[in-house]
Amino acid sequence: MTSTEWGRVDDDGTVYVKTVDGERAVGQYPAGTPEEALKFYTDRYASLETEVSLLDQRVRSGVLSPEEATESIKTVRAQVVDANAVGDLAALVARLDSLGPVLAQQRSARKAEKAQKAAESKAEKEKLVSEAEKIAAGTDWRHGANRLREILDQWKALPRIDRASDDALWKRFSSARTTYTRHRKAHFAEQDEKREAARVIKLRLVKEAESLSGSTDWGPTAGRYRDLMREWKAAGPAPKEIDDELWKRFRGAQDEFFGARDAANAALDAEFAANAEVKEKLLAEAEALLPVTDVEAAKRAFRDIADRWDAAGKVPRDRMKDLEGRIRKVETTIRGLEEEKWQKTDPEKSARADDMVSKLERAIAEIQSDLDQARASGNEKKIKELEENLASRQSFLDMAKRASADYSS
Description:
Distance between the termini: 164 Å
Number of domains: 4
Radius of gyration: 56 Å
Shape: rod-shaped
Number of strands: 4
Mean pLDDT: 88
Number of helices: 12
Low-confidence stretches: none
Strand order of the largest sheet: 1-2-3-4
């Protein structure tokens, strides 16, 4: 008989393994020597020992889940207990059994980790729900829908929590999405109605603008175009493509009218250029009166120049301000000197000052009447000309009144 610490071979080739319960036959090996028989069954034990070691490492490293590890330990333990192998089978079983506390600790750790993740997931879902509800209560129609879709994707990526909490939070989130969607649809439906109303108004404005584009009644028509533009802005936007097309037509009608008006004004300016040359010569005469040495002579000369000035007619618009300013400067200077003379003359001449006041007041009344008519007709050029004339006359009237007051005092 050949034997080792954990087994032996009978003379008939039967191989036994030693256990805590005694010997147990594990097989026969009649074809070889007893040493070969023992080696065959101890090699089997070595394979089992390797398998147990590998399983021990995997379990302790946490590669296997506690459930997977429990099933693997159960399978390998059954193989070891009834193994046809020679070796310390009890030690292998004990090693496998020693993994029980390890699994218990891993279960506890996983349970705690799961609870922590559930708490984090719940907190994150509550945060997402609060944000969704805030979006639903707002009016960010441009970005709100995209953000709600992002929140939904974030929700799906989070771990589930306990059913009751998960269902309650989902109900709030779903309700917020539904509320936002309903309000958003209502908003855009209202916008569509407003755009349609704007389209109707703008189409009417375009038709009127086009009907006015050939008008030569420059003042009133220009005023009406300004009114149409104010109505256009007040109407709000129509659907974009239609709005762009209507604006193109509206702008085209305006350009046609104002282009024709500008051409007409340019023709008038060319016609009035000769008048400007005449007034330039008159200005040279008027400015030659300064400095004044004889007020009465200067007044007579200036009246003659003023009569010829009025007879010369209109000048180009870009020359009007300069020419009128220069002639008024001469007139103002002479009037100022005349006022000084009045202040130094005999009080009997106050009647003349009063007469001047009356004449200027009558002239101002006539100019004011002409100005009112020009404003009613919308004649912008006439309005500007009369306003400048009125300002000048009013200035002279103020001086005449002061002189009259001085004589009366």
